Amino acid sequence: MLAKRIIPCLDVNAGRVVKGVNFVSLRDAGDPVEIARRYDEQGADELTFLDITASSDQRDIILHVVEQVAEQVFIPLTVGGGVRAVADVRRLLNAGADKVSMNTAAVENPQLVADASGKVGSQCIVVAIDAKQSEPGRWEVFTHGGRRGTGRDAIAWAQQVQALGAGEILLTSMDRDGTKNGFDLELTRAVSEAVDIPVIASGGVGNLQHLADGVIKGKADAVLAASIFHYGEFTVREAKEFMFSKGIEVRL
Amino acid sequence: MSCTVAVVDYGMGNLRSVAKAIEHVAPKDRVLITSNAAEIAGADRVVVPGQGAMPDCMRELEMRGLRDVVVRAAQKQPFLGICVGLQMLFGHAEEGGVMGLDILPGRVPRFPRNITAKPGGDRLKVPHMGWNQVNQTQDSNPHALWHGIRDTARFYFVHSYFVEPAQPSLIAGTTDYGIPFTSAVARDNIFAVQFHPEKSARDGLALLANFMSWNP
To answer: Which residues contact A29 (CB under 8 A, 6 or more apart)?
Structure first.
């Protein structure tokens, strides 16, 4: 049967991985290619690069990063951050990305999701949703890196982007992101059960049980984590072996 | 001896990824990403990738005047179809009611709605996206393209439609996603897969390496 996916996420600023990644024997802790190769060797099922480059004149550097990674790492690559137009999607795919993730631009212009998936296919379009609980059982969509509320309901927005042609949802809990307290399982489950497309759970992973919970209790199709892998607390392989021991199908 | 492999460019698909993966496993060979019919006809091997919707793929193939050269390649050159490049080899597709190249007999249906992993189990999402196992058909000898690849190894899939060959002898691999479906087909010089070997890590690269040394 289909395996649940484990996806390390890397923040990239002007071509360098930030927040440091501690691997034993890594020559350069900020080199995206070297880090991507390391995660590939550990058995990562996919990689997500989030381009957080602020200055517009350095924005194209991510294309070179994607090109270099795609020449050496033969697993799916998702790239997000700063995608504003169908042309941005095309450039990233041409550079070697398999999927492109959009967040703020999709909220500001939902037609972009339809236009992009119409041009390159739903399988290439990921909509990232940053959600924050507003009341029990309700979550609001935030944009601009979680700084701006939109008044949109996260579940309704997930269903809308599916109807527009998104092929996958990357769901981040703003309440949990960075806390190491585990995914917002209620949010994850509510969104996953409301749509037919795969949902990646994100935000809050502090240990391996959290990853298993995201799949078993949150009904996520994939789990994304950054810091537990970056700082060498756990390898992707250890995460998979743990999930397997909990009865979850993984690629080992 | 080095050979030339043509990766057919008809505007649909991750050609660069496919080309890079082949270059990685066959560094001495020449990989051409091409929409030139003469180059395709003259290549030692032909790869037809494909992503997205089959009606779009068929339309683009026709518009670029590549239908005939692809049909001819499937008759004689070592031929690898990937994803929609597999689906196009068949006849009728449920998607858009379009006809494929009709080289192999069979249909291309969509995964049914509300499929479950087991009776009463969780609903399965469509597209089928991620790493799933391929059961190699072992009726006689395993196919040369499975050489060195463990039976039930996992490959990366992303698709909503699948092929249903009319002849069981065409089936080289099957996968289970609520229902069993054909994930690899083979006949003579043709091998075609529903998954993406170029994105399937070591086992995917092994399959591409096998293709590059295959003498059907």
So the answer is: A17, A20, A21, A22, A23, A35
